[in-house]
Amino acid sequence: MDMDQEAPKSASVIETSGNVDPYLLHDAIVAAIKTVYDPEIPVDIYELGLIYRLDINEQGMVDIDMTLTAPACPVAGEMPVWVRDAVLQVSGVRGCEVHMVFDPPWDKSRMSDEAQIALDMF
């Protein structure tokens, strides 16, 4: 993620009880994740299909499973930190854990149609 960019803020996700609505928070978190790019691929990691799981609880804790296009990716140690930092910028998020997983292995079938078009892989 470009550190000069700020992740999108969500509106009205915190209720008076101190809990958040995970459904409202989801879109803001996805928007934040979409600010993170693999430096070698001009498509965000969400559209690339690198996010395998995104769980949000009512306390604003976020748990993410993600992968890489290749296990030997040069930014393998940094990318989960970029994702965590982007998600933590979202209003209503109180914590975030990002887990790197490689099962199932990533392949281009996980990419969105937008990503395939952008990379001329259609």
Strand content: 5-15%
Order of strands, main sheet, comes to 1-2-3
What is the straight-line distance between the termini?
26 Å
Quaternary state reads single chain
Radius of gyration: 15 Å
What is the structural class? alpha+beta
Number of domains: 1
User: Could you tell me the number of beta strands?
Assistant: 3
Helical fraction? 10-25%
Indicate the low-confidence ranges by residue numbers: 1-16
Q: If helices are DSSP runs of H or I spanning 4 or more residues, what is the number of helices? A: 3
Give structural notes.
It is a single chain. The chain has 122 residues and is of the alpha+beta class. It has a single domain (22-118), classed as GMP Synthetase, Chain A, domain 3. It is 23% helix and 15% strand. The chain has helices at 22-33, 79-88, 113-118; strands at residues 51-56, 61-66, 95-100. A 3-stranded mixed β-sheet has the order 1-2-3, covered by helices on one side. The longest helix is centred in the N-terminal third of the chain and has 12 residues, at 22-33. The radius of gyration is 15 Å and the shape is globular. Mean pLDDT is 85; it is low at 1-16.
